[in-house]
Design brief:
Helix content: 25-40%
Strand content: 15-25%
Number of strands: 7
CATH topology: Nucleotidyltransferase, domain 5
CATH superfamily: Ribonuclease H-like superfamily/Ribonuclease H
Oligomer: single chain
Amino acid sequence: MYPVANPKVIQRAQQILAVAPIFLDTETTGFSPQDVVIEVGVVDLAGQTVYESFIKPSIPIPEKASAIHGIREDMLTDAPSWKQAWEDLRTVLEGRYIGAYNADFDLRMMKQTHEHFGLNWPIDDKNFFCVMQLYALFHGEPSQKKFRTSKSQSKFFPYRFHKLEAAGAACGIPLPNAHRAVDDAKLTAALFHYIANYTA
């Protein structure tokens, strides 16, 4: 019965825990190389919000995206642009170890939004770690499909990835996967805590 609770994964999570990481989530206009971030939420280890902001997009929000996260353009009338919001967000992220559920996606979306505004990305990619991959390793369920861990890596990831809501439910965490940035960052932080403090 899953989870298998790989002790090496628990040890790795405990090492990360020791450096007091923060946890981030984004909501976006979509998934393509042209899409941008429209909400960012960051929480600390205790799940307390340290940054939260809507971002006024430079492109329309498709109805299918709004149907997922519930964010409409009329909600962003007074929101800052990415360039304006980045001044505060950068101070939160710099020098920290940052966890995200599917970190490759959040990192890609922030970087391409950055590029859209002609800004140079200053945060080292190595500062980000993926709680989705960590949970897949912890859970230990072999995948029937094999996924590349990233475009730059040639090896394949042998374990099944789980949706954030399913992972939280499997661990008995009473927080919703609401598809809003702060709420999902809180669930990601709680899931990481569960892994780092797991005892059989």
